[in-house]
Design brief:
480 residues; alpha/beta; Jelly Rolls; TIM Barrel; 12 helices; binds 2-acetamido-2-deoxy-beta-D-glucopyranose
């Protein structure tokens, strides 16, 4: 038990007994059976520090200070928290990201790690940080450096409410969605909250998983990257369509993203090669300027690129392959040019994509997947079927922070997917946390085949779990 907690309880005892009881209180040996039955705050300055320090320079902290000095990768503050039973709690972290946007890692009992985003701010604020399944007895909650350079004042844990029933919209947003897209949507809705679809980036890695675990992922994610005109000009030949058709023909589901190489303005230097032209730092293409008028030459190039992609999507439509389509992914990260100028151009471009593909090209086999979490980036309910996040955190945890943020974003009317992850989530954790991700898709090289992210044992556990749907278990989904 931490010192703070003892004084907190002491305060309650003191109140109950009257002010006169206060002076003798710190000597009390009262041990509560469930210290966090109703929610409790733990001050960081009273926790166990490793490589970190207590400071008081920044005003607005609670208690006697806050913890800072998260510089090295292993720097952390460890809270020791008791729970009377195995129980799910909401975690909130009081922090100040005074040097800009930061990310931290929360590690429970030395195992699963989850990532928490601190938006830049000049004052301390309570940041919702997902949920923690505490074991009966003593638990450790580490806040570990990650990006570092933030101030931690305290954490608060409160027993989680049971998740209410989902209210998922009955139909896709595109009223002209074709039979395949409708069947896909209906199937997804039928399993949402009950099971998770296993998924993998790239067909070759999906087949590799089959060799490792005896089970093939239900979903394969492919990348339209090499159909971007500024790459095709330089000799690339996309294979994503053929891979998608192959997986679809064996009864699998297909998700599609697009590392959209900027239409023009690629630096193409030793440091920033043309093939990294989807990165903000590899191009001077300005999406805001391009979208400023429809007669702008660069607006025309954006449309040219969308039309090139439409050709590929139509091939999939003709082959009866409905798709989970996730354009402009990770826009809020700003590391891709479509997110580099903030939310407004990104949302506008998404709207143009939706309109051009749906209304102009009549591509109706798409289920539209949005991939940023922050509300100011959300293009709106009318053009989004599924919300998603890309999460790179080791430990095979349930990613409940992001899941809960997306529940809030979509008011629980949109299904939610872990569209790209570094580590496949363990099913028992997903269920305990009620983190009802519709699917997960692990990134390819250096993630799926890297034991630091996905050990062979965990992959086997995940792929053979009843909770995790694999290719053999989704056969006939069109008629489901
Ligand atoms: C189009 O974008 C390129 C690359 O950023 C830039 O050099 C050019 O000036 C832009 N053209 C117009 C008409 O804005």
């Amino acid at each position: 038990m931490t010192r703070t907690l003892k004084y907190f309880l002491c305060g309650i005892v003191a109140l109950a007994a009257g002010a006169n009881a206060a002076p003798s209180c710190p000597a009390s040996t009262t041990t509560p059976t469930d210290p966090v039955a109703t929610g409790q705050t733990f001050e960081a300055e009273d926790a166990v520090l490793s490589g970190t320090v207590v400071d008081t320079a920044q005003t607005g902290f609670t208690g006697t200070g806050y913890v800072t000095g998260f510089e090295d990768a292993t720097d952390k503050v460890t809270f020791i928290v008791d729970s009377a039973t195995t129980k799910l709690y909401d975690l909130s972290i009081r922090a100040a990201a005074i040097y800009g946007d930061k990310r931290t890692s929360v590690v429970l009992n030395g195992g699963a790690s989850s990532e928490v985003f601190f938006a830049a701010g000049e004052t301390f604020a309570d940041v919702p940080a997902g949920q923690l399944l505490l074991n009966e007895g003593s638990n450790t909650i580490d806040i570990v450096s990650n990006w570092g350079w933030y101030l931690i004042d305290s954490i608060t844990i409160t027993p989680s409410a049971t998740r209410p029933a989902h209210q998922i919209n009955a139909a896709p947003v595109n009223a002209a969605a074709d039979t395949n897209a409708k069947a896909l949507y209906t199937y997804l809705r039928s399993i949402y909250g009950k099971k998770i679809l296993s998924g993998q980036q790239e067909l070759s890695y999906a087949n590799w998983i089959a060799e490792q675990t005896g089970k093939t992922p239900a979903l394969v994610s492919v990348d339209l990257m090499d159909y971007s005109p500024s790459r095709v000009e330089r000799g690339t030949k996309g294979t994503a369509v053929e891979e998608a058709i192959e997986h679809s023909n064996r009864g699998g589901l297909v998700s599609v993203l697009w590392h959209w190489n900027a239409p023009t303005g690629l630096y193409d230097t030793e440091e920033h090669k043309w093939w990294s032209g989807f990165y903000t730092d590899a191009t001077d293409f300005d999406v805001a300027a391009a979208l400023s008028s429809t007669t702008n030459a660069n607006y025309t190039l954006l449309i040219r690129d969308i039309d090139a992609i439409a050709v590929e999507l139509k091939r999939l439509q003709a082959a009866n392959v409905p798709m989970l389509f996730r354009p402009l992914h990770e826009a809020e990260g700003a590391w891709f040019w479509w997110g580099a100028k903030g939310p407004e151009p990104a949302k506008k471009l998404y709207g143009i994509l939706y309109d051009r593909l749906t209304n102009h090209h009549q591509i109706n086999n798409l289920i539209w997947v949005w991939n940023s979490i922050l509300p100011e980036w959300y293009p709106g309910d009318a053009t989004v079927d599924i919300l998603s996040a890309d999460v790179y955190a080791q430990g095979n945890g349930p990613m409940s922070t992001q899941y809960n943020q997306l529940i809030e974003l979509g008011q629980d009317k949109k299904m939610i997917a872990a569209a790209e992850v570094g580590a496949a989530p363990l099913p028992d954790q997903l269920q305990a946390y009620e983190a009802h991700w519709l699917w997960f898709a692990v990134w390819g090289d250096t993630f799926i085949n890297n034991a630091d992210w996905n050990s062979p044992e965990n992959l086997k556990k995940i792929y053979t779990s009843d909770y995790v749907l694999t290719l053999d278990e989704i056969q006939g989904w069109r008629g489901a």
